Amino acid sequence: MISVTPDPARVAAALAGDPEAALAAMTEAAGRVLAAQDLDEGLFAVTHTALALLAGDMAGVLLVDGDEVVMRACVGNREMTTARLRMRRGVGLAGHVFATRKAAKVDDYLHNDVISDHFHALAVAEATRSAMCAPLILDGEIIGVLEVWRRRSSIFTEREMARLAGLAELAAIALHHARLYDEREFTLREVEVAHRVLETQFAKVTHALSLQQELVQSLLDGERLSGVLRLVSARTGSEVVLFDTDFDVLAAYPTSLDTDALAAVVRAGQKRDAPSGSATWWGSYDHQTLAVRSVHVGGDLLGWLCMLTTAPAADETVELSLTQASLTCALHHLEEQAAARARAALRDEVLLSLLSGSTDERRAAAARAKHVNVDLRGDLRAAVCTFGRIAEIAETEGWSVSHGEQVRRRLLAVCESHLQSTGWLRLAARHGDTVVALLRAVEAEELRAVLQTSAEELGKEVPGLSAGWGVSAPRSNPLALAEAYVEANTATRALGAGGERRVALHEELGILGLLLAGPGSLDLPRFIIDTIGPALTYDRAHGTSLVDTLRTYLDADCSQQETAGRLFVHQKTVKYRLAQLQKLTGLDLRHHHDRLRADIAVRAADLT
Question: What predicted TM-score, i.e. pTM, was given to this entire model?
């Protein structure tokens, strides 16, 4: 706490009428009041300075609260009631000043025609004889009043009234700054708490991404289910088992686990406790927490993935790991199905190898494509057509397995026939309930119109099908078609369940593409380059701070004035930098979508 008592000699000289001493005393008082940092310190400084400079016995600051002024700080009082004082507008001296917005005084508190008698009893208790009060006004608004009382017979002079008014002006500024300081400190504390929460969440996401990448990589390296579960066990310190729908073991790690006893527990628990869908349910087994999640492939149940761990039930990290492991098991199952179908026909094998094979497999497939008359030259797009609701329709209509397979083959034929008529089709194959195609890259609008018509024709073939196409960005290198396939699959997730628009192009998804991409396919560096890459390059080449200005601008709720204040530059400088950045990147910061893209790109760039 700062010392606020002015030099007694200066005060005495000032009160005696020495102009130079009065000026020095006020200057010293101003420095002490304005030096206060937080609100409580500011109020302390104001009351004590007023008490000393005006030879008062009691001083207080009352701040506006609706239609009242409420005592916020008081010094020299004898009664607790004084420290809790509340005055309505027009009541008492403070209420009078609150109502008139002008300084006022009473030379005899108990006998005057200026104020009401509402507080006479308190004045008697405090032995108040005289008082004066001045408004605290900031930007034309009254925020409170400053009042000084004396317990001796005296008359406040016009010079003292002027001195109080001057001190009130300083106090209004100081209290405003102190409030801003308090608000800033509160905001910083909130930011710190939010930062800690985000750090925790980021650690969980990082762990999840790392595990997902390892699991996906294990599949790419040809690991079987036993290898996948071994990896999950090593990363989570748990025991993992995958049962099929008959509760026979598909894979387990460690192999010494008593799977028969566990199967009995899971069989009983899934009937009693398992939620609908594929959500995790929790139980206990052998003094450990048991987490169980169903593994689905499409609409079919593949089995149950079980994890035994020492972590508590509903632990978020365990649930994330279990979810990723179940997805990987489902992917493994799909991979086996895809491999079986790919071997059925050479063209199918070439296409699937190009889109989902290893680097060596993609090279081999690209070489084999020449022998089956598949032209992979020029820019190509990967396109995925989903047969939405086909399983539901099959169940409702009571299709047999053979009839369902016949319908799917017919849908593939419709897709191939329609695309071949355009001359764009390079290769097509059915992959489960989707059709995968390689197309010559053409303009987006032309492509969209053709694929929209194709989806409508598929809907006519099977009413209620709601088919749709997801399309990647163009690729000029056949070895990059795996990335295109990931993009096309991501784009299919952007298709709505209804509506007339049945085509989604990955390059038009923007931020939605990031949100829909799986952890293993999340390409933040590319998103950063696509969004703010030119500005980053410009900053490095010219030593400028366009991206830093953008970051500060977004943190300041897109206020150029606040940004200028934080960067200690002129507002015109901020405006020029933002205009230059928009010219380089093509972003339009007036639009929410572009601001959101920019914000994510800036945060992502901070992590790389």
Answer: 0.38
